[in-house]
Write a structure and sequence with these properties.
Layout lengths: L7 E18 L5 E21 L4 E5 L11 H12 L5 E7 L10 H16 L6 H9 L5 H5 L4 E5 L4 E4 L9 E6 L6 H14 L5 H5 L1 H4 L8 H8 L9 E2 L2 H7 L2 H11 L4 E4 L6 E5 L2 H14 L4 E6 L2
Parallel strand pairs: 1-8, 3-4
Antiparallel strand pairs: 1-2, 2-4, 2-5, 5-6, 7-10, 7-11, 9-10
Helix pairs in contact: 1-2, 2-3
The protein binds adenosine-5'-triphosphate.
Amino acid sequence: MESRNKPLVIRSFAKINLYLRLLNRRRDNFHNLKTLFARIGLYDTIILKRRKDSRIRIKCSDRRVPKGKSNLCFRAADLLRQEFKLKCGLDIEIKKRIPVGAGLGGGSSDAAGVLLGLNKYWGLHLSRVRLAALGARLGSDVPFFIHDVKFALGTQRGEKIKPLVYLNNVKLWFILVYPGVKVSTPLIYRKYDFCLSRQSPVSPCFKGISGLTRQVPDVKIFFPELLKNGHSFDPKCLFNDLEAVTSTLYPVVNRVKNALLAIGLKKVMMSGSGPAVFAVCGSRSQARDSSARLRKEHKSWQVFLVSAV
Ligand code: ATP
């Protein structure tokens, strides 16, 4: 297969989960879930460059990103090499902007970016469906990023994607706050299962798993709300089953939420397994003013102003 000599530059965007409901734990220990993904304008840059030898090398300035075979970019490139019996060597440089272990899908998005990029760079001509199936072997969030869409419904373990193309014109602005602690997704799921298995309504984390103690709207009511009302959608639509668990382990999540509520933002929720928290804003200028205020008051937090893209 032919490959180009010029480096290929890719942007891999982050996601937030506007809705995340866990349904049940499966035999393979994953959870069936329903989630509404929104892709946001915070991105890593990945540069793919051909090597003369057959090695795959990762370069990344962020200390928290693994540089070896466990890096999701490495695994994505290696998966394609194995599938197609290729020997091409590759330098992968990652300019990391998406906070690591934040619930923003950074590693998954990087992996999807490498699959999409190498599909071109190595002239593989694979369909999106085929790339998404390969991506699902690397992580549950990877297929969403393969689909190149602003909003999508994720089901099963999150890897079954229904792109919501008719929502493409919905404009949403967010403030996104990362309070600086790295959270392990498997740990949060284990803790969630532990809370459920205890069946103890007195446990603070059990109480907070709102899906167990109150009626939760189905994700489907979200779609017409977004289409009709844009950022003025009913706040009850926002939902995350993992928020209570992560905020019990990491109280900073509630501090971030309270800071956002205190400056008058009403739709505030943690993304994925956290700890990043987002607030839906009414306009870009509201998001700009509120983020400036937050940055001033909380210097150790990373505050981003982003839109759904
Ligand atoms: P998850 O998909 O588990 O919800 P997340 O969005 O919370 O993840 P990521 O930033 O994707 O967090 O990082 C998850 C883990 O993946 C980190 O512990 C990190 O060591 C590992 N990892 C592997 N490759 C990458 C990569 N290219 N970028 C970031 N993290 C990576």
